[in-house]
Amino acid sequence: MRKMTLTDIQNIKRLSDDAVEHSLDYSVALFRGRKQQPQQADNLPPRSPDEIKALNYLARNKLLTAMSNGTVQYDAERRVLRLAKYTTGE
Q1: Cα 46 to Cα 52: distance, rounded to the nearest angstrom
Q2: What is the superkingdom listed in this entry's lineage (predicted)?
Q3: Contact 47, 56 (CB under 8 A)
Q4: What tens digit of pLDDT does each residue of 25-52 get?
Q5: 72: Cβ–Cβ under 8 A, 6 or more apart, which residues?
Q6: Measured between alpha carbons, how far is 24 from 30 in angstroms, rounded to an integer?
Q7: Both 30 and 52 in a single domain?
Q8: What is the distance between the alpha carbons of residues 68 and 57, in angstroms, rounded to a whole number?
Q9: Pair (34, 53) in one structural domain
Q10: Are 56 and 26 in a shared domain?
């Protein structure tokens, strides 16, 4: 094991502190940069009421079809919808 002088230890400590300070500054800058970027979802125009009704109809129709096929099952006791392919082991 090599002997270290006090100045060696102080230099290592100083370099370590600089690295930690740099990494903290870098992390804060990354966080601020991400926070100030405009959201991608904001670029989408809001949906019209007709489009919302159409999407709701499609989702409802698909759910009812899946329930009639037995692909999706309603558990009344737990009040949840279960997918049949994941509950075959029960």
Answers
A1: 10
A2: Bacteria
A3: no
A4: 777 777 777 766 665 555 667 789 999 9
A5: 63, 66, 81, 82, 83, 84
A6: 10
A7: no
A8: 16
A9: no
A10: no
